[in-house]
Design goal:
Elements lengths: L2 H15 L3 E2 L3 H12 L8 E5 L24 E6 L5 H11 L3 E4 L2 E5 L1 E2 L9
Helix pairs in contact: 2-3
Length: 122
């Protein structure tokens, strides 16, 4: 069994054990990336929480939308830095149908939902 296959099996077992529900697929992630790269003023900053990883530091914002939001399969959430384009970002994500939540000015796209998390989605 190859290394990638072992990784995939490990995160699938973790998701099943934690009763996570997939909320995004590769097509939607590609649409999100393209929408954020196409925003007027350049792509916004983002940070990612992996399903098995710790919450990233608030100061950890990336702006490289081509290669860094990967692997999509294990993104629990991707948080977009709130900036003056917040409304345009939210509208673009709603058009795509990405599952998002807004909390304290933060925009989160949910790749996986933990039990009871769906109530926060808009």
């Amino acid at each position: 069994m190859g290394e990638r296959r072992r990784e995939v099996e490990a995160w699938r077992r973790y998701a099943e054990r934690e009763r996570l529900v997939s909320a995004m697929n590769a097509t939607k992630w590609r649409e999100v990336v393209e929408a954020m790269r196409g925003l007027s003023g350049g792509p916004p900053g983002f940070r990612i929480k992996d399903i098995q990883g710790p919450e990233p530091a608030l100061a950890t914002w990336d702006r490289e939308w081509i290669y860094h939001p990967r692997p999509w399969e294990t993104i629990e959430w991707l948080e977009i830095h709130a900036d003056p384009r917040r409304e345009a970002i939210v509208e673009a994500l709603k058009r795509i149908g990405a599952p998002i939540s807004l909390d304290e000015g933060r925009i989160r796209i949910w790749g996986w939902l933990r039990p009871g998390a769906a109530a926060a989605l808009i």
